[in-house]
Amino acid sequence: MAPDLTVVTTAVAVPFVAAVLAPLLYRVLGERTGYAGAAVAAASFGLLATQVGSHGTVRSPWIPALEVGLQFTIDGWGLLFALLASGIGVLVFVYSARYMHGESGLARYYAALLAFMGSILGVALASDLVFIFVFWELTSLSSFVLIGHYTEDAESRYSARMAMVVTVGGGLCLLAGLLVLAVAARGALGGVTFDLAAMLANDEAMRASLRESGLFVPALALVVTAAAAKSAQVPLHFWLPNAMVAPTPVSAFLHSATMVKVGVYFLGRVRPLMMSPEWVLLVATLGLLTMTVGALLAVAATDTKELLAYSTASHLGLMVAGFGFDVVYGGEAGTFHLLNHALFKAPLFLVAGIVAHEAGTRNLDNLGGLWRELPITAAITGVAALSMAGIPPFNGFYSKELLFEATYEVAHEAGGLAWLYPGVATVASVFTVVYSVKFLAMFVGERRAPIADIHRPPLALVGPPAALATAAAVVSVAPQLAVDAIVQGAVEATATGKAHLEVGLPTHFSPPVGMSAVAIVGGLATYPFTERLAAGIGRGVDAPIPVRPSGWYDCAVSTATTTSARFGPLVHNGLLRTYVFWVAAAGSVLALAGFAATAGVPELDVVGVPLAVTVVLVVAVLAGLAVVTASSHVAGVLTLAILGFMIAIFFILASAPDLALTQLVVETLVLLLFLLVLQRLPSFYADVRPLVLARDAVLSILVGAMAFASVLLTTPGPDADPSSVAEYYTAQAVPGGGGSNVVNVVLVDFRAFDTLGELLVVTVAAIAILVLVTMRIRGEEAVTEGEEEPVSDGGDLP
Amino acid sequence: MRTTARVTVPIVLVLSISLFLQGHNLPGGGFIGGVLTTAALVLIYVAYDLDYLESGVLGQEVESGTSIFEHRTVLAYRRTLLLGLLVVFGSGVAGFLVGDPFLTQTYVHLEGVPIYHEVELASALVFDLGVFLVVVGSLLTIVSVVSAE
Amino acid sequence: MSVALAVAVGGLFAVGTFLLLRRDLVRVVFGLAVVSQATFVYLIAMGGVAEGARELVPVLDTHGGGVPEIADPVVQALVLTAIVISFGTTALALVLSYRAYEENETIDVTEWVR
Question: Where in the cell is it found (chain C) (predicted)?
Fold first, then answer.
């Protein structure tokens, strides 16, 4: 079944439309906007659900010349991610409506949340690289707005900026990587294209093309860096815990279930394209490292949301590692865990929100025995946390088991150092069990600190996590059901070869089962020593800056801030000549450097133009020099007029009567205007400081040299053929434009739009002059002289 | 000075209009016609003053004492400017009626017209008229406002 | 590849830049005008300059005739618009300097810094 372009486009567009309408909706519905958002998410979900089972690419062109178009590819992987995002979206909106009760700035909150959902659907379904990039950055932007939701709070603003810098910085790497891919497509697909679906279909050719041009490793590094920044992989993981200052629904939605998975998603997407030994080394190592570090930091965390944030980073590492391995199990682990993680992590965040809401604290040390007051919440947490720990028969176990099988298989084949893979994975899983139990512990046992009365949470708060936990339970009981419904399609889309996913509880002993057993037993055995462990990890975290990536971030940001604060006044000091100086100098040097680097020495023709032209131009330059040395303004104007008339004669000699006529008349008018204005201005005497004069002269000569070089390099020789544009216009003037004056036909017919713009410029100039002269009279009537800002000198603004 | 102006201004005006009309086929066009017309009218200012066009040529009363912004001649120039812009946009939008993109130009041959026998009418001429009006309007606004100072 | 043209354009740009860097505002406006003129010459030079002749004027003889070799009409159209625009900008710059003088009572740009 081929997908339907209209349905898919609508599903992606509806959240954006709703985002634009959100402020309006909020005015009408108030806090019930959350339910409207849920309806929008449900609509997208429903539309996408109709596409399950379809497979293919639909496209509507946007910039045909560059092969850029709105292109959606529907396959299991994209649909799994999109359905997950919109499905969890429904629940998060319902939860938000209640959770965000009484908060301010809700119109912005819902608008950003809806825009985010639209962008995530876009990332999941688009297969045009340009659109993928745009949607990718849109998710970063909406995440920025949502993390910085509490705009009054300095920490919130700091965290939002940090998330923005890291993820958008990663986005820039993605852009570069995508451009490299597009360039490589020239060799592989016979033309620059941004069509990712076509690249994936010809992955052999693409790899060969990338290797041939030596761009394979750079492209790989760029794409992985982008994904690592987005998916909080070590060492770019530090923004994720900080992002937890966002409202809890945002953390559940963006920073556990969807946005942070965009990087994982994209790695899965390009996995078939980039699979290679380098990929395995880079991605698998990165993933396992993050898995371990994230789990360790989660064990040390004391805040519920902080624990979940580090645990998210750790599980993202699991998925990344899965995609890193070049075995069937690896891709299966990545895809299946994407679903499972969303099903257990999102409810855990929502539970954390409920606990913070009802018990008033997020500190794990103070929480315990909550099951009495919050029995349903405790049950939800039980399912989700055990799933997170990977305890059979909960759903997290199946995907983790797949990763163990992948690591074991790789190690078994490669041997040697590759045995580190299963080892590290098992160690990380031990810590995963530890922090899962730690999180669960706040519900069991005895009360640790006196907490004032705890309310029963309302249905709108318990419903969404309960729904997710139920889904997790269903997947736990009947994993093959979920696999057949959607995961199998995702596995096929991300696999490098044929893959058929079969999951179920292990029936006999195998090394991976042993790894799981070690992880669970080890974790339970380690749990009693959690505090000592946490203290040890804490000492590591508080180590001096060189080992803390967030320290590097702070250092880089503050250095950039201070440098630009110093640099700004140096270049923009309010003096017109300083501005001109830097712009002209930088432009000339860059242009000259460019010429020097690329252009050879042109064939020189000493005169190259008729004698008359030479004479006229010499007079023009002399007139220009006379303008500089003119002793008074009037003399300057007159010499300027000589220059203008010489140019007019030059036009005649260059066979351009239209220009000559216009130039003559305009020159006359300019002369008149100058004379009119000059009689009102005082005379002024030129600089006398020789140093300044010398500096300006050097710059002038530099600019002149730049102009000289560019004329030499860009103008055609006397015998050159006319350019194709000129030829076309000349040939088409009579048949196409109905006029024999080619210049006029170009102006009013072929390039009429440019002429229109030019007329607007002249009009704006006229209006500006009118306003400058006449409004002053009004202005003086209205305000006193001293308060009026001089309109003309932008330079004196601070 | 005034004598010269009396003689030259009509000639320049006629010349500018002829340049404008022939612009599609011979040197000329809206820009040149526009600046030349401006030059002719500026000559009147230099020789006479801003009110002359109204009082001397059109024989109307001139209200004195208003600021340059409300000056009727300047007002007229601004209207010219506006009219020109409207003509330019109108000629662009007119293409929509027959389903062409914005600013598509076309032309027709008219045959059997007296004297000329064959006249070619290009829709671009309308656009050029707009160009002419905008140039005249804006340049005269500039010059008259500045000179009034 | 005419050195004479290049020298002329380079010279005019140099003169224009030098004027733009003056303290005297009127000379800055002069500089603007000179740079505009230099740009015209540059643009025309891009189309190539040959011996001026009746046949090279970009006006075709008859309707439907062959396409003769003429001077580049595109650059001429560009310059024609450039001339009118540069008039607009020069006039605007002049009026701005006049108003700036009225407000600041000086046309020395270095004295505007507060």
Answer: Cell membrane
